[in-house]
Design brief:
By secondary structure, the chain is α+β, with helices and mostly antiparallel strands. It has six helices and 14 strands. The chain has helices spanning 43-60, 96-102, 131-136, 143-166, 211-214, 220-234, and strands at 3-6, 10-14, 20-25, 28-31, 36-39, 67-72, 75-79, 82-83, 86-93, 109-119, 128-129, 169-180, 186-189, 197-201. Strands 8, 9, 10, 11, 12, 13 and 14 form a seven-stranded antiparallel sheet that branches. It has a five-stranded antiparallel sheet with strand order 1-2-3-7-6. Bound molecules: uridine-5'-diphosphate (UDP).
Amino acid sequence: MKLLYEGKAKKIYQTQNPDEVICEYKDSLTAFNGEKKANEKGKGALNCEITTLIFEALQKEGIPTHLIKKIDETKQLVKKVDIIPIEVVVRNIAAGSLTKRLGLKEGEKLPFTIVEFYYKNDELNDPLINDEHALILNLVSSRDELNTLREYGRKVNKFLREFFDKIGLILVDFKIEFGKDKNGNIILADEITPDSCRLWDKKTGKKMDKDLFRFDLGDIKEAYEEILKRLKDIK
Ligand code: UDP
């Protein structure tokens, strides 16, 4: 298989079909723009299974995604898209960079859900941007496209908040990415995993996501396994 791209957590391979690629989930973990690194055996398989379950559920809700099917422990067959270099972050509760930027306390419930855009650019450290920045950088071709990203962000949040609530988890915030398929349609791509979400246990308040790794708070594998177990139980 010809490797087309290798990122921090995934590899993308070519297939015989020019409209499809294979996405492989790696065991590597990175935080703080790659400054902190580790390897956790089995993490790739856990994330592959978790993101597949979530994307299938979103697909059923009418949200178009790149997922075609999971093909083995760590790989998915997905539609080839041109990734829009914008990280769409949706927040329900203050945490992470929001607390640092605005001085809010971690855990403070926001009066309403907010959607933010970050420019996907490692050299610049993924800066927070507004609509006009996205347009002058040509990250999208119109304001309508930015509104589509925002609307999908809110839709995904509405569904996922209830979905995780059912399995005893609070969805604090998450990051999603979108791509354009061969017809120019905007579809959900990349992943939704505990690497890209903040999930807190409803009963204990315990963190069950990548913050465990970011701040050396505990075993991520145990937490990711627990999330997968709960997801499978409600299926
Ligand atoms: N996030 C991500 N990739 C990034 C930046 C953020 O998946 O490159 C996720 C992160 O896990 C959290 C949400 O987006 O669920 C908001 O992240 P934040 O802006 O607070 O940044 P952080 O402080 O986590 O770097």
